[in-house]
């Protein structure tokens, strides 16, 4: 199978997790109170664990290999500052798609990095794609609920938009493969930029909202999310 086709399939797999997560969130009437409480918080915590796995196991280790310390630090902190600025803008505009925008903000650079690194290390690509899928599933879940609660869009329309968004992954992945594979320093900076932004998202949005008083299941979901990333890293090492 040609490299570009593998990248297309991997990034599409990661992107398809977005409408799947949205579809799961559409089942509002199944044990409604449970969905609003433990399941929603559990899904958010699971996504946080998967994001943490992406940062700790893939983005930072792979990105820091090709950059000096000053460039590593600069790329990482710049990612956090840009995501913070984006968060402030979305909060001030009170948009109904903040979760969706945040999801795209880490999905696109990760897909770029996946495509670009495929030439150098083919083992990293499936791991990164798997973690991207793990994080896109709960992010799609939460983005659906946010948009549904704030707009009059039908479930069908939201899911169609999510399906179209899934194809951004292959576009970004193939762009990284064709245009960035010879510029490993740029790819490393993109990885660390995404890692900084994701770290900001974890502590600003996901971790505080995942906490649920007198319930202890959500932290276990966070552990499971990270554990799946760790298992994937061990299998591809």
Structure description:
The protein has 237 residues and is mostly helical. The chain is built from nine helices and no strands. The longest helix is centred in the N-terminal third of the chain and has 33 residues, at 32-64. The two termini are 22 Å apart. The model has no long low-confidence stretch (mean pLDDT 78).
Strand and helix map with partners:
Layout: H1 3-25, H2 32-64, H3 69-93, H4 98-117, H5 124-150, H6 155-166, H7 168-179, H8 184-210, H9 217-236
Helix pairs in contact: 1-4, 1-5, 1-6, 1-7, 2-5, 2-8, 2-9, 3-8, 4-5, 4-7, 4-8, 5-6, 5-9
Class from secondary-structure proportions? mainly alpha
Determine the number of helices (DSSP H or I, runs of at least 4 residues): 9
Number of strands: 0
Q: Roughly what percent helix?
A: over 70%
Average pLDDT figure: 78
- The Cα radius of gyration reads 17 Å
The percent range for strand residues is: under 5%
Q: How would you spell out the order of helices and strands? A: HHHHHHHHH
Q: What characterizes the major β-sheet? A: none
**Principal-axis shape:** globular
Distance between the termini: 22 Å
| Low-confidence residue ranges | none
């Amino acid at each position: 199978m040609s490299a570009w086709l593998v990248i297309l399939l991997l990034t599409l797999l990661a992107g398809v997790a977005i409408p799947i997560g949205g579809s799961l969130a559409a089942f509002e009437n199944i044990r409604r109170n449970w969905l609003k409480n433990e399941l929603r918080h559990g899904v958010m915590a699971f996504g946080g664990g998967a994001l943490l796995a992406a940062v700790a196991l893939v983005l930072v280790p792979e990105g820091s290999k090709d950059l000096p310390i000053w460039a590593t630090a600069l790329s990482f902190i710049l990612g956090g500052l840009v995501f913070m600025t984006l968060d402030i803008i979305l909060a001030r505009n009170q948009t109904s798609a903040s979760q969706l925008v945040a999801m795209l903000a880490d999905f696109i650079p990760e897909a770029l990095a996946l495509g670009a690194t495929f030439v150098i290390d083919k083992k990293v690509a499936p791991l990164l794609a798997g973690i991207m899928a793990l994080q896109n599933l709960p992010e799609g879940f939460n983005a659906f609920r946010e948009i549904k609660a704030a707009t009059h869009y039908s479930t069908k329309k939201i899911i169609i938009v999510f399906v179209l968004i899934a194809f951004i992954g292959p576009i970004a992945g193939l762009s990284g493969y064709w245009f960035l594979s010879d510029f490993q320093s740029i790819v490393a900076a993109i990885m660390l930029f995404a890692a900084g932004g994701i770290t900001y998202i974890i502590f600003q949005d996901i971790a505080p909202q995942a906490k649920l008083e007198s319930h202890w299941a959500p932290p276990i979901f966070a552990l499971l999310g990270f554990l799946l990333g760790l298992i994937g890293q061990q299998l591809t090492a």
